[in-house]
Amino acid sequence: MGSRLTRRTAASIGRRLFLGAASPFLVAAAALALFNAIAAPEDGLIAPPPAGTTWRCRAESVLDGDTVDFDCPSGLLRVRLWGIDAPELGQTPWGDRSARRLGVLIGRSAVVVRTLEVGVYGRAVGTVHKAGQDIGLTLVSEGWATVRTRYVRDEIYRNARRDARRRSVGIWSQPGLHQRPWEWRRLNPPAEAGTPPMTGQAARKLRRPVILAYALPLALTAAGRLQELERQHSI
């Protein structure tokens, strides 16, 4: 009888020790998986480097008037040009014209890419210079991109936008939402804008909140279940 009680007590202690030791690791593993699901870069792209990183890169593809994939020393890096907002490709013909002008300005030779921050969707945000020329600022000066003055306080960019608008060049030659692409995006979500099924970056933007909505409750449920088992075996 005493031997059975001893074995039972030992087994109970062993279970409590195992659950006590495993709980933090299981919860940490769930949190790590959740973080990776949200923060992982898009397939084929590297994660944005730390702010202040400067690389010599070559343009791989121009996605639109303010976003470019660059072939950099560590791999393929997607960069959103800092301080500017260009018409979307769906804003015909302005988006295509802006993207083509960006491609011409960057060309195929090496440019200097400097990351300034990581955007809300995990993209690098930075400046691009070629032969000392600020490509983003040039787009604004030529009227192929605007500046959201509500957020951008740089007077050089703001003055360039003001001057392009005064000269009625590029997007300022005709009135319309191509002068305010953020409003066009708000009024034309991808599902309602007649665009093809989303893949890549656009799909990831929508997929990450969905993953969060499902994974977080599961992680919390698992943690609660482990605590409940600990209480049961401690009785």
What does this structure look like?
The protein is α+β, with helices and mostly antiparallel strands. It is built from 6 helices and 6 strands; from the N terminus they run αβββαβββαααα. The protein has helices spanning 2-39, 94-106, 135-142, 155-167, 181-187, 200-234; strands at residues 54-64, 67-72, 75-81, 111-118, 124-130, 133-134. Strands 1-2-3-5-4 form a 5-stranded mixed β-barrel. A hairpin with a 2-residue loop joins strand 5 and strand 6. The longest helix has 38 residues, at 2-39. Residues 25-39 and 192-216 have low confidence and may be disordered.
Provide mean pLDDT, rounded.
79
Largest sheet: 5 strands, mixed, barrel
Uncertain regions: pLDDT < 50 for 5+ in a row? 25-39, 192-216
What's the helical proportion of residues?
A: 40-55%
Strand percent estimate:
15-25%
State Rg: 26 Å
- Please tell me what the overall shape is: globular
Count of β-strands: 6
Q: Which structural class best describes the helix and strand composition?
A: alpha+beta
Number of H/I helices: 6
Spatially, the strands of the biggest sheet line up as 1-2-3-5-4
End-to-end span in angstroms?
A: 20 Å
Order of helices and strands: HEEEHEEEHHHH
